[in-house]
């Protein structure tokens, strides 16, 4: 459902993800790392290119980071057994398939 700004939540998240050059699946740590990396490149105090472009890029990065972190921080995680077992970790998958030798 579109929001007052015209974009759905998914569209906002997708734009933010692309702004930070993130894959479709990312951890909070990956989001933070990519934001820091790009901020070092585009921060107006460090960027030696066109100052106005650097300022605009940093604003876009800040907005994208805020959008993604707001979504992640407000996401509700389920700790019910049946929900946790739907998405086992790599280690759990290995043990489930191969067990102990």
From the structure above, extract its key features:
mainly alpha, 101 residues, single chain, Helix Hairpins
| Sequence stretches where pLDDT stays below 50 over 5 or more residues | none
The CATH class is identified as Mainly Alpha
Q: In total, how many beta strands?
A: 0
The chain-level mean pLDDT equals 89
Question: Level of helix content?
Answer: 55-70%
- Number of distinct helices: 5
* SS-derived structural category: mainly alpha
The total tally of domains equals 1
SSE pattern: HHHHH
Q: In this structure, how is the largest beta sheet organized? A: none
What coarse outline follows from CA principal-axis ratios? elongated
CATH topology: Helix Hairpins
Distance between the termini: 51 Å
Strand content: under 5%
Rg over alpha carbons: 19 Å
Secondary-structure arrangement, i.e. CATH architecture: Orthogonal Bundle
Could you provide a short overview of the structure?
The protein is mainly alpha-helical and 101 residues long.
Explain the layout of strands and helices:
Layout: H1 9-19, H2 28-42, H3 51-74, H4 81-86, H5 90-98
Overview of the molecule:
By secondary structure, the chain is an all-alpha fold. It has a single domain, classed as Helix Hairpins (Orthogonal Bundle), CATH 1.10.287. Helix content is 64%, strand content 0%. The protein is built from 5 helices and no strands. It has helices at residues 9-19, 28-42, 51-74, 81-86, 90-98. Helix 2 (28-42) packs antiparallel against helix 3 (51-74). It is elongated, with a radius of gyration of 19 Å. The mean pLDDT is 89.
